[in-house]
Amino acid sequence: MSIFFILFFGGVWKSFTSGRFEKQLMIQLLKYSAPMILNGIAWWITNASDRFMLQWFMDDRAVGLYGVVAKLPLLIGTFTGVFNQAWIISAVEEFEEEN
């Protein structure tokens, strides 16, 4: 969903309409990003496999409860991240006012 907003509302789609395609640049980008893609897939498998293992030993209720509780650190991290970003912006603005 965020890619949709960036492409269409951010005006990024305009850069794709030129019809230029640089093959060498694309090869360099793929060489650089291939390990990160593999790492992302490995993280996804690791994070998803725990629920399958739990379902093998427990009932669906336990798996559902685990799924809800496993989301809590993500929510807490998102919540603290918002305040962290807001604090950084205000700290930089205050620093610029002093100088």
Automatic annotation (TrEMBL):
A UniProt-annotated Pfam family: Polysacc_synt
Keywords: Cell membrane, Membrane, Transmembrane, Transmembrane helix
GO cellular component: plasma membrane
Protein name: Oligosaccharide flippase family protein
Coiled-coil region: none
Topology with respect to the bilayer: Multi-pass membrane protein
Main subcellular location of this protein, as a coarse class: membrane
Species whose genome carries this gene: Streptococcus pneumoniae
InterPro entries: Poly_Biosynth_Transport (IPR050833), Polysacc_synth (IPR002797)
Top-level taxon in the UniProt lineage: Bacteria
Location relative to the cell: Cell membrane
